[in-house]
Every structure is written in structure tokens, then in C-alpha cells.
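User: Could you walk me through two proteins back to back? I'd like the raw sequence and the C-alpha cells for each, with a short line separating them so I can tell where one ends and the next begins.

Assistant: Of course. Protein one, sequence then structure:
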Amino acid sequence: MKVADFIAVFLEKKGVRHIFELSGGMITHILDSLNQNTDINIISMHHEQSAAFAADAYGRVTGLPGVALATSGPGATNLLTGIGSCYFDSSPAVFITGQVNRHEQRGDRPIRQLGFQETDIVSMALPITKASFLVNNPDDIPVILEKAFQIAMEGRPGPVLIDIPMDVQRAQINMPVENVIGQVTKSIDPTIIANVIADIKQAKRPLILVGRGIRSAFATQQLIEIAEQLHVPIVTTLLAVDAIPFDHQLRVGFIGSYGNRWANIAFGESDFILVLGSRLDIRQTGADTAFFEQRVIYHVDCEAGEINNRIKKCIPVLADVNTFLKDLKFVVITENFTKKQDWYDYINGLKIKWPDNKELTVAEDTINPNIFMHQLSAASTSASAYLADVGAHQMWAAQSLEISDGQLFLTSGGMGAMGFALPASIGASLALNKQPVVVIIGDGCMQLNIQELQTIVRNKLPIKMIVMNNRNLGMIRQFQDSYFESRYQSTYWGYTAPDFEKIAAAYGISAKTISRPDEVDAAVNWMWNTNNEKNPVLIQVMVDPHTNTYPKIAFGKPITEMEPFAKPIEMEGT
């Protein structure tokens, strides 16, 4: 069997239904084999970065590795930002790049390049992949592909890269396709489980902090069942705002640098925290780490290096969250837990005192982004997922979207890559069998991968695009207000955005623009009417350029102290 044919058949047998790529000479063998030998849907993107983001979202939604292909040289290097996004946000993915023929590789020669577009992508990708392989022996292909899928999914999921020279792709091998090797699960020390339960019972203000690890383990239902037994409220990180429905009685809110003020206060005033699949990074806790060490914290994570990394004195639980929750549930169902009513009442009081829709002061005739997110949610019950890009709109969405049971929320967290959401929506919609998804994106982010509007139209995807157009790079503009005396270089000065309604029309996408609060309900309902329900549409939402993102941690202070009422004591380092 030709190696390229083997790769194609292998991918199909692993359950891959869509792959994302931008064609190039060094992957033509694989693309032809996919076309001739499989029913895999080849989604041709307009930039390799977009292909990588689409694969990222596909992997998050399905739990199977998203697959993206790129040719050698610039094609391969263009994947790197998306590969990094998969790595930092724990998305399973396999990236396959073409490489020049083996006889065209420079090897140990003291030169920069021998073959045209020859680039050592394996070395470049190593720091942001779980593994990277250069295949110089055709007979190694079956084992490497098997390893790539296993590595991408085991433990903390992430990306794997396989670089295959063109002459290897057309070589002949005679090997069967094997099945994916299963994961081995281990039980948790019963003493740890007993201690967790004892400390929860003793705590007066307990919380569960949920991170992306719960979503990547597909463990949201187990989490909620156990939390309901324990009567412990849940706060979430940015990548886990969809881990518990908006209207669930145990949901407190979203914590972090731009978290809901009431959630940050509750987080800061808790006396017990069970951390499930969260890294406790600086955007979750603020810079004052000593503030957090004055309470009982159990940190459950599948990577030892993440525990007691920034926040010290955590009780370490090195485990997969599924295993931990299974073992915890086994004991929890035999115990009785008392609801801490005073704690519930206090949190509910904070929500009433600090509502998200009152954090911003905007003119009466302009759109308040937080209020808009609630209106968008009310109209978008048919959406299977929300995808937010990176910037002020991302935080407005995380603060105020009313995500219902079964809806997903995808965004770029650790990489924080502008341009993520539009191509990621393609991967998400396809992973969800072309169900509609909502993209929330800023005018700056929209211009990074705007070319994928054509991919959306060509594939007839029901993607609903909300462009929050404040005509500047708002989050950095706010940063310049705080630290650079409102000198808006490259955010407002020297920056422009087009009329996205006209851009959409050029691609054949129905679109409209709104700028006043009284236009919102009609627009978001129009997006879902009978004519638009199964088609892509775009709404351009004009926002005042000086609309800020509040609340925001006053950098250098504890997480409970947030702008605009508290002021930072040092410049943000991240």
C-alpha cells in the first residue's frame, strides 16, 4: 500500500470525519489519497493558521484529535500559532506536514537550506507539542500514526506533529491499520478522598473551581451530580464557563482578571477550594499569590508540574479528573452533607449588589455590551456553541452569556490568539454535524482571518457572526488609558476597520448593522428567523470606542479588589 493511502485509511478508521488544510505541493499525495480512498470531508481553508484553529475546535468538541494538513516551509510554519493554541488549551490534535524529499534535505551540511521550502518544522514545533516526528523510514508510518493519536488523547490532551517527506508519502508499505491503544486508569488513594470529604464538611465557605480539564475530560455531568450531593457552589475559569448551565443553582460565575465581581469576591473569601483541571494561572488568581494560600486548597490535575506551581501549599492530587470524580462519587453517595445556607445567601447577595449589566456606564443611546450578551443569549437557544475571539468582547461574553445545558463555549485561553474564533467556528460546526454556532468577534480580530468567510459560504455552514465593532483594539486601548496617559498608538491612532456589513455582502452573506439599544432585539431575532436559521449571517454591533471592560482586577492587589473602584499598584505583566 502507498504510504499516503495508508494515512488516509488510518485516519478514517480512527473516526476522523473532517480534515482541514490549505493545499501545497508537499501534501498533494495525501490529499489525493484522502479523496480517492475515504469519505473524509476535506475542508480547504484559506490560511494554514485557520486550518489549525478549526482542528483545535474540532478536537475540543469531539474529544478525538482534530487533523490539519499543511505543505512544507511557510505552510508548516503558518500552523504554529494554532498548534500552540491546542497545546496551551489542551485540545487533542494531529498535524501532518509535508516535507521535501529525503535527498533534498540539508542534513548535517553547513547550509541553511537545500530543497525548496525545506524547513525544520519538527524542531520549531517541539516546545508546543506533546511529540513531534520526522518520518524518514516509510515502514515507521503505522507505529508513528498510532503513537500520535494515543499521545494526543492520553493524560492532558494536546497536539502532535508528523512531518513526512514527499518521497516517503509515495513509498510502498505492507502494514495493517491497528486500533487505538486504550488508556489505563488508576484509582485514587482512599485517604485523599476521605480528607476531601472531611474538609468540605468542616468548611463554612467551600467552592469548587472548574477549569478546562473538566471539559476536555467530558466530565461535566459527573461534576454537577457530585456538586449537587456536596451542596458546594461552583466558580469557573474562562475556558470552563460552559461547564455548568447559567441557571443552575450551584453556578456562582466566572472568575479571573475580568471575572464577575461577585464571583471574584466569593472566590477570594472562600475557606476551602477544590480545584478541578485548572492551572491557577495569574489570570485566574491575580498577582497576589500569598492571598490564596490562607485556605485549604486541593488541586486535582493530571500534570504534576501544574500543582504548587504559582499557588503554594495546595494539597496535591495527581490524577485524571474522571478518575477522581468517579472515586469521589463512590464515597459521596454514602454520606450526608449539609447545605451552607449562609454561604449561599451571601453569594446571592453579592450577585444582587454587583450585577454584570451595571458594571459599565454607557450613554443612553449606545449599546451596553453586557446587556447585549443577555439579549443575544435569549434569542440564541438554537445555538450549539458560542465561540469568542480574544479581547474586550471575549470578556463581555464570558461575563454575561447565558449558556444553557448542552451549549459549548470555545475561546483561545493560554495562547490568547486573535483570529481564533472565525476559523474555529468552522471546525466546531462541522464537529456538531453542521449545527448552528454563534461567533462573537471584535473588529480587530475579524480582520486577521476574514478570508474564512468564503470557507463558511462554500460549505454552507449556519454560522451566526456577531462583530462587536468599537473601531479600535479596545482591551489594549484601555491598557493605554491606565498606563500610557491615553496615548492610543496602534489601537485607535493608526488603526481602521471596514464596514463589515458590506464585506459580508461581498461574500453573499446576509448582514445588518445596529448601533442603538432599541435595535438589538429585532436584530438578534432576525438572525434566527426562518430564512436565516440554516444560513450564515452577520450582525455588526457598533460600540462606543471608549467602552471599557469592567470589572478588572486591580493588578498587584488581591482578586477581590477590582477596577474601576480599586486602582492597580503596578503595571500588568501579563
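----
Protein two, same layout:
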Amino acid sequence: MRLSGTKTGSANQYNGLGDQLYDLGGARPTLDLNFASNGSLVDSVTGKTLVDFTRASGGTYVDGDGLIKTAVTNLLLRSEEFDNTFWTPTNGTVSANQASSPTGAVIADKLIANNAASGAQVFSTTTLLASTTYTFSCYAKAAEWSWLRLTSRGPENSDIGAYFNLATGAVGVTDSNVTATIQDVSGGWYRCVVTRTTGTGAAAGRQRIYATNADNALSAGDGTSGIYIWGAQLEQSSTVGEYIPTTSTINSATRFHHDPTTGESLGLLVEEQRTNLLLQSEDLLTTWTALGGLVRTANQTVSPAGSVTADLLANVGTQIGYLEQPNASSNQFVSGTTYTYSVYLKKANTSTCLTLLFGTTFNSGGGNPVATWNLDTGVPAFTNGATGSMTAVGNGWYRCVMTDTATQTHTQNQQWLRMPSTSGDVYAWGAQLEAGSSPTSYIPTEGSTVTRAADVASISGNNFGTTNLLRYSEELDQADWAKTNSSVTANATSAPNGSASADKFVEGTAVTTDSSVVSTASIAYTSGVTYTFSVFAKAAERTSLRVIFHPNAFPGTVAQRTATFDLTLGSFLSVGSAYASSSVQTLGGGWYRIALSMVSDASATGNPTIVIGSAPYTGDGTSGIYIWGAQLEQSDVATPYVKSNVTFTSRASSATYYDKDGVIQTAAVNEARTAAYLPDGNGNFVSAGPLLLEPAGTNLVLQSEDFSTSWTIGGNTTVTPNYGTAPNGTATADRVQMPNNIGTVVTQAVTTVPGLPYVFSIYARATSGTSPLVLVLGTASQAFTLTESWQRYSISFTATGASTNAQLDNGSNAIDVLVWGAQLEQSSYPTSYIPTAGSQVTRAADVSDGGANTFGNSWYRQDEGTVFSAAQQQYQNTVGGALYWVFSDATSSNFHRAFGRAASTLGAGTTVSNVSQADRTPPTGTITAGSKVNLSYGYKANDFRAAANGVTDGTDASGSLPTITTLEIGGSQYMFLKLNGTIRRLTYWPSRLPNDTLQTITL
């Protein structure tokens, strides 16, 4: 029977979210990287960017308009670490991690001016090309000072830039030949930008950031005043692009690729490292040699990049024209190496075909591989061992590709283009020669060869698995958390994750004594390591709390290790000087996540402490705050919350719980309550979390469901047993009718211990409409208005004698109610219902192992899972294959993975300690160039299965699982394979989905 409200089943609760994959999967995944739809690395489930991406070079891609674009590249190193040796301070200092950056993490540095009139600055030395346009930008926020100056120096050895007002968001004095803009990015932060074109000369470039307190002047400092800075970027561009963080190498933006003709989003482009061995890939008049009757005219039409940079190649006279480029180095072609030529071609006038050749004696027979391109039909022809493709890229352009393997090592020129006859002309652009069996994205070159670095996309470290060093991170009522002058009421309200698992931290009554709770699990801190403690908190009757890193491993006095947070203002009132940083995250519904970081100055033990209130005071024994999700980690910031491992061991009695519909169910002896729900106070039932744990409890009243026995019934009161359906679905609810007379009660006396808290609870509802009911416990009483829905009502009292009465009263009102499940227990709050008959009954404690989470996180599960990927290869599998994704332990010995096999088929499997546990091959047919593959792989011990494009391969019923720490996308640095294609979507469920579901989600 439903107490009130509804709870939708887990298989259907996500319907209507507009995502068919979730509906087909029957559950919401915990990781969903929808690259094609989102055009970003953001996880659709958490809204966070968990993927780390790097590419230590630029790179091109096709945008939604079908044009070839170049991804933003940050040429500065250590873009967020101004205290690093890459940056040089002058007349000032840099203090790291002093404020929240635009990302919310406390990683913004402070540039502090010392007593120098020439101005505090920090600069990087970066080589800039002559006569080239660059854009230099930096995020800045006012501290004591409110002006920033940015300057850029090129080979001409001249510093020019602009001033920016960080109080008003205005651009100040700007030097000539500089364009300056400022962007408000909220929270007092601005992105300040200067753009200039360099001159000529031999000096290296410098990018400078100044702190000042006036427009057009560099101020003298006082050793403490300055500004906050974060996120510096230098781009070879006339406009500012998206910010790209860097560390020890330059970094470039992710490339979200599109079909050049339809504009369809293909997702994240992941490619291996490649080098364009040709020079001047777009200027066919420089470093190239024209032979025969070939005449070249530069910049005659719009190229595939949208610029008028495509050259016209016309054949005149009586000789067939050729175009070739001398080799840039000796041994250009290496025997046994496969090479791929590619060029963008477009019909100009009458020419309908073009022949592309390698140099003579390319292969052992002295033959030349030949490709003929029909620019009318888009159909190529290949002879002399050549293979390749011809792909329309829009506006009449084709990317023409020819591949062959050299059987000799030689240094002859590449005989690149040949006209079909003595007449006709074509447009050409974007020539590329690369070692590899397929073309990769276009790599533009000028006076030298250019290498595009590999794309590296992965989830690892704290984004994959955070180690929460605390035990029982959500069960603060457990004995692992010591209570001083306080108590903890378990599962008192809804937590930030929606489950009814947040505890209430209740103050005691001792005079001027802190009400505190402290983790008693011994944490072994390591000297010199930064630790971060975080907890979710919400105001109840009290509106502030204190956090103390305690006691032995951290510097300073208790006052220096104490921070006070106001749950009404949502901000810290004070932070002790020993803390390296602090942060707050606003979650809605009154919840905040507060975090504090400190560097251990000793290798010793200690425990974090939470205290109610901003100072010692006299409590009332009932007021408090709500807390949930305590976490202690080795990190300088709070990473995504990870619940501590809690494993159920035993319980020496049965126990009750609510199911998802609010019906009371009974768990047998030693049966874990893993599917328990709790009322949320609004008529609904929400999850109690993955495991309901309670201490031992005893129901002191007899006949908890039969009020006609063992209960004293007052005059004029009528009790009718088994009148209605009870909350557990049985016909055991009693009807109690009381006329409008004083002293009409139903009561039972129990033995109590003076000075201990007791709580009396009962399930009740009105037979019709509404009805009053008064609960009495000792000298305490509380009136309730009952409705026709079952609710559990309770009253608390501190016993004053050896006997206490628990009773139902009408409060001088006529009442007609149904009652069931009376319980009186020695506790400050009601625990799960314990039925009694002729004697008191004890529910045994849930015995559990609440160990720290030594590995894992909120989205990945080690013992089972399902991975879905939608991907497209750029070319047919060759030796080694193409890797779609791999979950591993950062080695090539333990992993789950999906890959295109060398035989051009698809595989998915699991390996433990270099021994294959499962190797599935869904019958998808040959994986050819451009093949789109939807793959699912479900794994569990002795239960592995894969499906692709709606076809499954059967189940492998034997095998174990590896322990995983890393997800790599589209390639692996440990297996040295790349997809060389695009990932449209990668989705993970923390369960082994059913076989029919594995098949359905790939259709």
C-alpha cells in the first residue's frame, strides 16, 4: 500500500528526457560524452569536463559550414602557473593559488607589486615570427589594485599593448598598431586581449603582464597590493579564440569534425602524429617546379578553407604540363614505407581529369603508381599498384588521394601533377605527402615541413577515480564518527544527490561546549602533501559550522586551522591562516559544498572535525545542521565526491524498510537493505542510498499493531482491531474512535532510564477527511492534523523517571483514526519500524565494513559495466588496427577495449595480466573507409558480450576482470594505436546491460 506519493521505476524514470539512447538502455548512464551533439568535452550526465585533452601542435578540421578551419593553439607554456620558471617576475612577486579562477577552482595567482616605480610584471619569452599577426590574452581580476597592462613584443624588439580597467571593464590607453578588447566573464573576472602584427628583426618575442593602479602609468607597490591573473594565451591569429590551458608543451583545441558536404557533426577527431613532407602546400608557385606547358596563377578562387588562396593550373602550348617539388631531404622515400599523396582539386574549364604520380622507380618494377581524377563524375581510376579515393568536399572541390608502398629507397623528385593533354586547366590547393596508409586531416605548410602532433583524450586521475580517505562518508551516525556533546540523526533529509541519506547533526545541551563530530579513522598524513577536506552542508535550526583540520599533521594553532562558514550567506566568515585555499560550491536547495586545503607539515595522524556554530554556546539538544558527503583526499582542490566503500556484513535479526512505492517490507536475517527508500517530507519516497545501515534498536511497547491488547483504553474510547489496510499491505490497522471528552486515551507504560532521550512514533491516518491526534510521551505532547494518507508521526522526550507513558490522546476533540506500528525506543529519532507482539523486540545492528574508498569514483564501477561507442574510421583497417576506446590500468596488460582489427573487422574484449579473458567479434562485415560503427560491450565476471550495428556475437561465459584507472578515447599511449577517425559518442553504464539491450542500443 502506498503511504503517499509515487516513485517511478528505475527502468522508466528517464523516459521523456529526449534521449533515445537512455530509453533504449533502460537506465541513465553515469558517463555520456556526446561529442557530436554537444560539440564539447562536457559530460552530459554531470555537466563537468572530465576529459583531459592535449595536442602539442595546431590541427585542422571541417566545421559545420564545410570549411577547413584551424583549431586554436596556445603558444605559451604554463598558462596558469605564473610562479613557474617559464615566467619571469620583475619588480614584483607571484603568489600561487590565491583566488577562485573563472572555472571556480582556487588556482588563480596574485601578481604583487613591490616597492618599485617601474611596475610589477611577469613575462614569458616566446619566439614570434616576423610580419605575423598574434593575439595575446589573459584573465584578470582586481584585488587591491584595479588596472592591468598587457604588452607583446615581436622580432622588432618593441613592447606595445594596452591598459585595462578591472573595476569598470573598460579598455584604457592603447598603443598605436594595437587592437585591444575586454570581455566580462563574471565574478569580477575579465579576459583582456591585445592583437598586433609583428615587424622585422632578429630579437625573440616577449609577452608581459603588468599589475598597476592607474591608466597609462606603472605604479610603485607596497609588497602586498596587486591583481589576480589566470589563463594566459598567445595565438597566431587576428582574433582571440577559446582558452586552451597548457603545461610543459603548447596545446591546441579539440577538433569537432563535420561532413564537408552535409554538415553532419561527426564528433571528436582523434588522429595519430603525421608530417606533411611537402613545402608551400597552398602556394604552388613557390618551391614547386612547372614543366612542359604548365602555367600557374596564384589565388584565383575560393579554397576549401573559404579563402581566395587556390591556384589555377593551366596547360598551354604544345607540351603536356607537369608540376613537381624537389625533395626536401635525402632518402625522401624509404623502402617498405607506405606513402599517401593528397590534394584538393576542382574543375576550372574543360579539364575533366588529372593524373597524379610518384617519382620514377618508385616500386621494384620501376613503374609509377598513377591515379586519374574525373572532375565531372567524381570517380577515380588507379593503375600500377596505386589505391586511393576521391571525396567531394563541397563547392565542386574533391580531395583526391593516392597511396602506395615504396619498394626502393630513393631521393627523386615527386612528379606530382600531370595535365591530361595540352589543353585544359584546374584549380589546386592543399597538397600533402605523409607517411601512412591513409590521408589524415590537412596540414598546411610554408617554408618547411610541418608535424601535427597526436590527439590525446583521456579520463584519469581524480576525474576517473578519487580516493576518499574517510570511512562512512555518508553515515556519520556510525561509530567511526565520534560525537562530543552532539548526536547524529541518520537519513533526516534529502541529500544533494536526491537520496534521503543526508544526516542531521544535532547539538547537545552542555554549557559553552562545542557540539562536534570527528572522524576517528586514523588518517596517516604525509609531510609536504596537500590535503583537501570537503563536506556538503545545509542550514537547519543552526546556520553556521566550523571545520578544523585536526590535530597533529598540520601547522599552526587550532585557531589557525579553523574555518567558519555561514550557511545563510553561503560564504566563509573566516579562514584560518594555516589553510592554503578554500572554496564553496552552491548546489541549490540550501546545500553548499565547502572545501579547505592545507599542506601537511609532518608525517603523522589526524582527523578532520565538524563543529556546529561559529563559537561555543549553550545548545538546546534538538537544533542543528544537515551534513552529507564528507571527503578527505590528497589534492589541492576538491574533486568530484566519492562515497566511501560500505559493505554489508550481517544483521542478527530481521529489519523493515520502505520499498520504492512506500510499502513497508521486511528484510530477513543477514539480508542487506539495498533497495530502501525513505519519505522526503513532501509525500514522496526517495532512495535511502545504496545501503541502509542502522544501529541496534529496541521497541519497548508491546503489541505494536494490536491496540486492543497490552494497551490501556480510556473511557468512551473504542478500538476496533484489523479494521483497515496497514502500511505494510496487511489488514492489521486498528480503528480508534474517541468522543469529545477529556481523558479519552490509549496508553502504555514502559520502563525508562532517567536522563536518556526517547522517541515515540506511530503510523496514523484519518478514516475520512482530516482528524486531530495528540501524541504524549511523559510530560511532552504534540498535536497533529491527520489526513487520509498514512504518515509516521513522532514525539521525543528525555526521561525523568523510571517509567514513562506513551499514549494517544484526543486533546478534547472527537477523533476517528486508523493507527498501526507503535514504537517507543531509546533514541533521539525514530528508526525503522520494529514490530512487537507479547514482548519487546530488538532489531540487531547492521554490521558493515566502512572502509575508505581506495579506488573508484561516482561514475565507474569495477565489477561490471557496459560501454557504448559510435565512431567512424577515416580509412580501412591496416596492420595494428584502429583503437576506438580503452579502459586500462595505464598499462598494456590489463584492459577492456574496442578496436578495428587488421583484418578490417571489429573486436571488443578484456585482458587481465596479459591473458585474454574475452575476445568478441560482432559480425559487422568489413570495416571500410568511412564506416560508421555503433558498438556495445557488456562485461561482468564470466559474462562478456558485444554487439555492433544491431548484430551480436554471443556470450563468453568465462573470464575475470581487471582493475581500471584510466579511460583513453580514440587511441592509447600504452598500446600505440589511434582511431584516425571520429568518435560521435561514448557512453558508460555502471551495470552489465541485458543481452537484448546491448543489441538494441547499437541499431
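Residues 1-17 have pLDDT under 50 and may be disordered.

Let me know if you want the two compared in more detail.
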